[in-house]
Write a structure and sequence with these properties.
two-stranded parallel sheet, 3 helices, about 15% strand, globular
């Protein structure tokens, strides 16, 4: 089970509709928006200035509260 499921509103992914969208910011909001759009068949590219996705979840919240592995599992689920 994925602990951080960014596509939590998605019951079933739709096939690709061929429309590409760019999201600027790979924090919690950007990843949630990506999950919403991927669920509806959009092809999403996410851009961030930091080396890893997750924003505050990755770089500010202590690892014992939100482990990096859980954030990365949630990101992989979006691919």
């Amino acid at each position: 089970m994925i602990a951080l499921k960014f596509a939590f509103l998605c019951k079933e992914r739709k096939s690709s509709n061929g429309i590409r969208i760019a999201i600027v910011g790979a924090g919690a909001t950007g990843l949630s928006a990506t999950g919403y759009l991927v669920c509806r068949g959009y092809e999403v590219d996410v851009y961030d200035k930091l080396p890893l996705p997750g924003g505050l979840m990755t770089f500010a919240i202590p690892k014992h509260r939100i482990p990096l592995e859980e954030v990365m599992e949630g990101v992989e689920d979006l691919r």
